[in-house]
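Problem: given the chain below (109 residues), write out its structure.
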Amino acid sequence: MNTRAYEIMIIVDGDEEDTKVDDVIQNVDTWVQDQSGQIVKNDKWGKRKFAYEINHKAEGHYVVLEMITGQIDMEPLERLLRLTDEVVRHKLIRLPEQEAIRRGLLEKT
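Solution.
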């Protein structure tokens, strides 16, 4: 199986409690584990103000996750996040192999 590294930023509605942020992270973690992957780094940035209002909101909870998985189709995860009401925005990127190696997510081949 070809392992890939991803980084995902999730912005949760600023009106939500920290426990809801943890629930969103847990849902992503469960999905990743179901795909034989793992979240390697969980970086909670806390509540930040937006540069402009999004859905009439001025701030949100920022979370950046680094994960590795063999899953090639990440659309189901993106769909899960789109359908989660508390998630204001998300951005998923596949890390280039060299960057993933530099961050210690993948072994050099």
